[in-house]
Amino acid sequence: MSQTGTAVTGTPSRLRNRWNATDLGLIAVFAALVAGSALVPGITANVFGVPITFQTLAVMLTGLMLGPGRGFAAVGLYTLLGLAGLPIFSQGRSGLGILAGPSAGYIIAFPIAAAVVGWLATVVIRRTSSARALWFFAAAMVTSIVFVHTLGVAGIALNTKASLGEA
Fold first, then answer.
1. What's the predicted TM-score (pTM) here?
2. Between 20 and 30 A from 30 (CA), which of 3, 56, 67, 82?
3. Beta bridge partners of 131
4. What is the distance between the alpha carbons of residues 56 and 126, in angstroms, rounded to a whole number?
């Protein structure tokens, strides 16, 4: 019998020791959602070739829906599969070489951003009335998007030898 958040006495335990099959299924489905959103043709809006895709939205939704742990696991799975060679990054790219390109900051930021937005959503649910929760969810997503783009711009600047202003 696996421990799924309740002790034998029926009281909720503080720590979940393992993920059950439902958790693993959700992680796989949301990893596929992020991969699918990356393959939707994006718009290349800068000279560095980093496309604007639905990927950031999918990462934020993953964090909101799954919470910090499972959100990080889902987006981390997506990242690891792409780095291992599955062509699931934007424009069908894959492999470790992506870390030497301008998209590296975004790829690194995605799992962390999913965890951050999941954690912020968890805090909002615990401490906020339902009337104000929508505004706090929006703030959590904006915070996470700012985080993703900060690391993304840093990756562009680092890998293309451009200044932060140019990136």
1. 0.76
2. 3
3. none
4. 25
